[in-house]
Amino acid sequence: MGERSTFLLNGEEVVREGDPMARLLDVLREQRRLTGTKEGCGEGECGSCTVLLDGEVVCSCLVPIVQVDGREVRTVEGLAGDEAHAALSSLLVREGGVQCGACTPGVVVTLRALLERDPRPTRARVREALAGNLCRCTGYEGILRAVAALVGRKERP
Amino acid sequence: MADLPDPPQSAATRVVGARPVRPDGAAKADGSAAYVDDLAIEGLWHGATLRSERPRARFAVDTSALAGSGVVCLTAADVPGRNRIALIADDWPVLADGETNHVGEALALVAAPSRAAAFAALGELRVTYEDLPAEVDLDAALAGSARELAACAVDHGDVEAGLSAAAHVVEATYETAHQEHAYIEPQGMIALPGPDSAVEVVGSLQCPYYVHHALVSLLGCEPDAVRVRQAVTGGGFGGKEDYPDLIAAHAVLLAARAGRPVKLVYDRREDMLATTRRHPSRVRHRTGVDAEGKLVAVDIDVLLDGGAYTTLSPVVLSRAVLHAAGPYACPNVRIRGRVLATHTATNGAFRGFGAPQTQFAAERQMDRVARVLGLDPLAIRERNAYRPGDVTPTGQVLDESASALQCLAEAERRTGFRARWQALEAERSRALDDGRPRAGIGLSLCWHGVGFTGNGERRMESPVAVRLERGGRLAVLAASTDIGQGTETVLAQIAAEAAGVPFEAVEVAPPDTALVPDSGPTVASRTVMVVGGILERAAGELARRVREGAPGLPFAAAGDAWLAEHGPLEVVERYADDGTEFDEETYRGVAYAVHGWGADVVEASVDPDTLIARTERATLVCDVGKVIHPLLCAGQVEGGSLQAFGWGHLEAARVTGGRLEQGSFSTYTIPTTLDAPAMETVLLEHPGGSGPRGAKGVGEIPMDGGAPALAAAIENAVGIAATRIPATPEVLFEAREAGDDDG
Question: To probe the interface with B, which of A136, A138, A143, A150 has the most B CB atoms within 10 Å?
């Protein structure tokens, strides 16, 4: 016997019964098979499990499913279908922002939330927004180059 | 953040030097790339590992609570044959047998239908310990049994005579700490039992044939009965070189007993506690110089903490010792190296493989010597850096690609290092006690031998194959893994260039022991130079045969004509002996086929009150011989350098009483975007060796220079010469209190 939670997942209503303290990360990965959300540390430090909860960036490893009731969750899979993703993804790859890829879905989700709010973030703002997404491969240079290129392109008419 | 460097100018190429888009990128960005923990496998059970809580103890595991539960439980008694992982030495148990030698060592394994059930089962196991005296660090090992896991020595000239003739003799000891790889994807493996006791494993790994070798040896089976596949792998840095052998062994034993697939995926804490780390080091230098600052004699003692078992320590030590004198010519050199065992988790392969430790010491020692002589850091390096034709301590004559001076000149040209260093030195002596951050600038010069040390490549004679497919397409068959660096992309570029076909016409086969030959492990910066060099010949030979068979036809048509007429075409080439020799007893001869070279300039700011240091800017000059893919190459330099800066001042891994105090990313802090400096990467091309178009490899050299350049910048800023890294505020404070400064 568990509690029932109802939430919007990537635009689709999901009803889930079970342990109310189950981690959102596990519900996504194991029950919904949405494995783009990764577990890197399980304690909210690395940002690999980043998802949007009502548009806010959260670490899904720290969110018990009970907190999601009545709210909207978007994962990398839910963000990946549109043109904004195509532009960001393409630049991340072309500018060297993707190496091993374990941090990449989390980086994508964080950047989408940032760009939604601030389509032309300053360099400092980008660094601050990404401070919760650890990357061990790129030295962050490629990721920052990608955002600069994206923002630069928007600056042109 | 700087723009990517322009593609450097050298011999004209079409595909090599271009920036084709890495084929795995889009799937990584949309979350569809399948890492080992993402694979959906029917009937999969989950494994978990019971770990030692004591650094050294006799122990017994009581498994009776699990009797009849249906849970699979294994101890050392269940390991078939010899309870050892086959690597260099025969001392690493699959499961500890009655005696444990480090905290985190695997004592028993369980498997159950769910991860939760597996962890619940672990909680049912009862362990009793009888503690034994433990030696948990180098001091304890030196005071105790001082058990050597490896030793080696280099002798060149007459060191005592050189030291007694020197104008100055400068002595100091340097220390570096453990470093955690901190790949973002923790280690993991799935074993799938097949018919007739065959087994397949798929996992996060760097070296499929290492795992294959370990499993064949463990199971005592025919090589064909074991198949090893790499899943998409979320970073390695050496951490997935040796340790996956053990996880694969555990998964295979559990799967065999359970009669179904079993997955073992570590969580972060477990990964940090149990898997390998970088060897801590203690390096003592005695350096003799003449009045002009030319080196006349160096005497170096290298001591590494190997942890509990041998694993790769002899090879790490060898590279540490061979790089210990730094990229500097000296007529009289004595280097002694030892790895001592301690009762801590085994230290293993980590990007740079011992060379970053000894070059941290060598570089800081050069700065110390320069101060004694009143020289600036650039001047002493220019005076002593290797030139082509110089002779290394093993007697190796350096080739024309020895570009230390060019690296230094480029670093100076880009940064104006000398003038700024001098200005900041003067400023420090005038600095007011106003609490404002102090700026500092530091320089390092490093070299890195590419490929296996000594006779390693000759012994392996690695094969690489290229197969002709329909429509003029080529398949590259090599065991090299992509762990993020972009192997798949650069191997395709090398083959395309050599065969004269478009990049898109080349497919790189997945690293799967059922499909590809053993072209050696993905380590030692060898993928581009060694594997790529063999591949270049194989692809060139295949194209030559196809074109000769149908002169004048386009390649695709000529290829199809060949297949129609002769059947399948696969060209296999092997590592070609270059005729050099290295004596592994005397350490005389050609230690490395060729070297990469690099100069780093780091600009830091240091709070004079808290002693918190920030890396603000880094200029990274790196001679890679030939750039295959400018973006991926720069990515190695950028990522490796940040890892080096983290090691230099942030990544404190304290082992107290045999226990790692930092078992998480909250306590073991790797650099974030807010810690990363703006980086300018400058790639130089001084081709050498047997690599494609003279490419020399880039994977590890970025790890060498970052920490000493950062420590030098801190010294320039606040006058504290840290002899120990990470140079955390605590370490800097202690160094200042000890009076080891001139500020």
Answer: A136
